[in-house]
Structures are given as C-alpha cells and as structure tokens.
Write a structure and sequence with these properties.
This protein is an alpha/beta fold. It folds into two domains: 274 residues, Zn peptidases (Aminopeptidase, 3-Layer(aba) Sandwich); 131 residues, Aminopeptidase i, Domain 2, CATH 2.30.250. The protein contains eleven helices and 20 strands. The strands form three sheets. Strands 1-2-3-13-4-14-18-16-17 form a nine-stranded mixed β-sheet, with helices on both faces. A six-stranded antiparallel β-sheet has the order 8-7-10-5-6-9. Strands 11-12-20-19-15 form a five-stranded mixed β-sheet, with no helix packed on it. The longest helix has 16 residues. It is globular. This is M18 family aminopeptidase. It is an enzyme of class 3 (hydrolase). Its cofactor is Zn(2+).
Length: 429
C-alpha cells in the first residue's frame, strides 16, 4: 500500500465509521474480503495453523488474528491494540423535549468531551437500535442518518457579553440539539423517527422500538487541510486512526507469524465492561486459541497499544515538556510515564525504535510535564490483565476529544509501515 492510497482509504474508513458499531462493521467487511473466518463465542472453536480469524463482542469490539505457521506458545504473538469509541453526545432513553415549537433531544455526555466545539456544527445521528420486527423477533440493526439532522446553536454574544472570557457549558441545559420545528399538537416520538429510519435504510418492518445506543456526530466528512495538504481533519481520529492502522498492518502481514489486533469499546469511559480492555474479552480469545500454552505464548509476546498523542501546539507550547514536544508529520510518538499511566518500558520502546530505525523512519518520544496530570490508554490495563510486555505509542494530533481533530498526513503511514514489520517479524525480542 502506497502513502497516497493509505490516506485516501483512511478517509473512507473514517467516514464509514460514525460509531463503534459502524467501525466494527466496517472492519468486518474488510476482514471478510481478505479471507478471515468469523468465529462465534457461543460455538466450539477448531483453529488451524496458517489461518486467519476474527470474533466480535457486543458488535462494538473485535479481535482479529492470524495463527501463523508455528504454535503460538513457541513463537509468541505480535499484538496491536486500539479502541473503537470516541467522546460524543449520546441520546437519552426518554429524550424528547418540546420548547417553543422546537423538537430537541436530551443528551448525555460520553467520555471527556471538549464541549465548546460542538456548538454551531452540522450534526448527524447514528448507532445501534434494538427492536421487535414483523415476526416478533428481537433484532438489532445499525442506523446512520448520514445527513445533517441537528444543530446546537450558540447563544448570541449580545445576550452573553462574557462569552469570550468566562463561558461555561452546562451539559444538561446547554447541549440538547435542535432537530426540527413541530406544531403545538404534534405527538411525534423519537421512536417513530427511528422506525422510519430503519425502514428507509433496510426495509425492515418495525413493530416496536425496544432500545437504542445512539450518538450525534459531526456531519462534515474527513478531508485534507493545509495549503499543501499537510494535514487530515476529521471526527474520531482518536482513536479510529489507530484501529485503521492496526487493521491495515494485520491485513498486510505475510501471515507466517502469529499476530493479533484487538479494538475495544469503552476506553473513553474507563474500559470497565464485558467488551472493554479491562474486561475478559481478549483473555477469553487467547485462552481458546492457546489453551495450556497461553502462559508461554504471553512470555514471548508483545503488545503495541496504539492511541493518539498530544502534538505540541504552536499557540500553547508551554503545555509540553521542552524536550518532549511531538511535532505533527515528524513520526509516531512513544509515550512514557514512569507512574504507569503508559505501559512503555525500555525493552518495548527499544523494539519499536529498532524496527523504525531499520526502515529509516522517524519516531518521537512524549513525557507529560512533571507539573501536569497524565492521561492513559488500554496499554496499562492490557499489560496488567495479560502480563504482556507493552508499548504505548500513537500518532501526534491536535484537538484531542474535540468534535473535529487534526493529524499530519505522514505519521499514520509511517506507523503502519513499522507495525506491519512488527507483526510479521520472526523474533520480537
């Protein structure tokens, strides 16, 4: 895969994946096309060498792996981990609000949303809906309105003179989006609108909406930015970019060595769920794959936790340690925190640096300022659960947790090349 092709396909992936369920569905299609076999956790598994498999949990987390030519207990497994979820505004169970003829929906803030950028943006809506179909069967389906259906208008500065100096956002009262205008006697429910959307998208008859997990998202598609197209702007770069990089690396490996990609949901809210990185999903897959040889396999394995990093902002340079300010388009960022907010150690960092240097590709290092708190990733959670040597790394970006984020056009492809080599390398250590 060439550089331009990589970025063009990345834009397609981002635009097709407005929610974790859509992201996993998109990955499934690509894995199916590459000959991977889907496994069901409810069934017995019979895994063969030199085969490729994947398994999905809750529709929002996925583990895909190649068994390789040798037993994993003897060869170890080259693992890459990322997460499918991004901060957003989720629709509440009883969301309808009618005020002055405007139809609005109540929303719950999911994750550490940077809330101000959500105002005055064209918003669409997508997610999973569970319903009773025409045969009285409980069914799940994905919906994506795909067009601009909502807006959160700012209060005019004439009515809020302190907006530019001390504006605060109240998540309960300030964020309900406006969807349409309705007459005073209108009785349209949100469930009615969902039923119509399901029929429109899939033609399935809906008897009754039973539940949903839906989130608003930026209707503007991903695209290039910059006089020389140096950047890519998009929603959900944190962390669908890493999902895409890991997927492409797995698809482009030789398949000779045991390799695995895990993309977990719920990282943005702590990863404590059945399909989150602090849950049993990956461990369950490895138990069934490796059996009694799992401990030996883990001892020979390495996990690369891929999650975007904070690029040094030219307007806020003092927010970085002066020797550890990653620059966009200057290489992926090895993330170090000795208090174990990141799982990187000297050994795991050395593996990445060595491969990157062999390929003649750049890399950078990030350490948070000593007087600031440090975020975290699925890396420490996975390392603690499995006991596997782990590296935390990511592409540098601006605007993390905003409705629209920014990366350089060079860094994703650079990390893809290194991780592809990592996933097919015979000897990791």
């Amino acid at each position: 895969m060439e550089h331009a092709e990589f970025n063009k396909d990345l834009l397609k992936f981002l635009n097709a994946s407005p929610t974790p369920w859509h992201a996993v569905a998109t990955m499934k299609k690509r894995l199916d096309a590459a000959g991977f076999e889907e496994l069901d956790e409810k069934d017995d598994w019979s895994l063969d060498q030199n085969r490729s498999y994947y398994v999905v949990r809750n529709g929002s987390s996925i583990v895909a792996f190649r068994t390789g030519a040798r037993d994993a207990s003897a060869s170890g497994i080259r693992m890459v981990g990322a997460h499918t979820d991004s901060p957003c505004l989720k629709v509440k169970p009883n969301p309808e609000l009618r005020r002055k003829g405007f139809f609005q929906l109540g929303v719950e803030v999911y994750g550490g949303v940077l809330m101000n950028p959500w105002f005055d943006r064209d918003l669409s809506l997508a997610g999973r809906v569970t319903f009773l179909d025409g045969h009285d069967k409980v069914t799940d389906t994905l919906v994506d309105f795909r067009k601009s259906v909502a807006f959160i208008p700012s209060l005019a500065i004439h009515l809020d003179k302190e907006a530019n100096s001390s504006r605060k956002v109240n998540a309960q009262t300030d964020l309900p989006p406006v969807l349409m205008q309705v007459p005073e006697d209108d009785a349209t429910s949100f469930n009615d609108l969902l039923s119509q959307q399901i029929v429109s998208e899939s033609g399935i008859k809906v008897r009754k909406i039973l539940g949903y997990e839906l989130g608003f998202y930026d209707a503007q598609e991903a695209g290039y930015v910059g006089l020389r197209d140096e950047f890519i702007a998009s929603a959900r770069l944190d962390n669908l970019l890493s999902c895409y990089i890991g997927l492409q690396a797995l698809l482009n490996t030789s398949g000779d060595e045991a390799a695995l990609l895990v993309c977990n949901d719920h990282e943005e809210v702590g990863s404590v769920s059945s399909e989150g990185a602090q849950g049993p999903f990956l461990t369950a897959v490895l138990d069934r794959w490796c059996g009694s040889g799992k401990a030996k396999a883990i001892a020979r394995s390495m996990m690369v936790s891929a999650d975007n990093a904070h690029g040094v902002h030219p307007n806020y340079m003092d927010k970085h340690d002066e020797n550890h300010g990653p620059i966009l388009n200057k290489g992926p960022v090895i993330k170090v925190n000795h208090n174990q907010r990141y799982a990187t150690n000297s050994r795991s960092a050395a593996v990445y640096r060595h491969i990157s240097d062999e390929l003649g590709l750049p890399h950078q290092t990030f350490v948070v300022r000593s007087d600031m708190g440090c975020g975290s990733t699925i890396g420490p959670l996975t390392a603690a659960n499995l006991g596997v040597t782990t590296l935390d790394i990511g592409v540098p970006q601006f605007g993390m947790h905003s409705i629209r984020e920014l990366i350089g056009t060079e860094d994703g492809f650079t990390m893809f090349r290194v991780l592809t080599e990592f996933m097919q390398r015979e000897q990791v250590f």
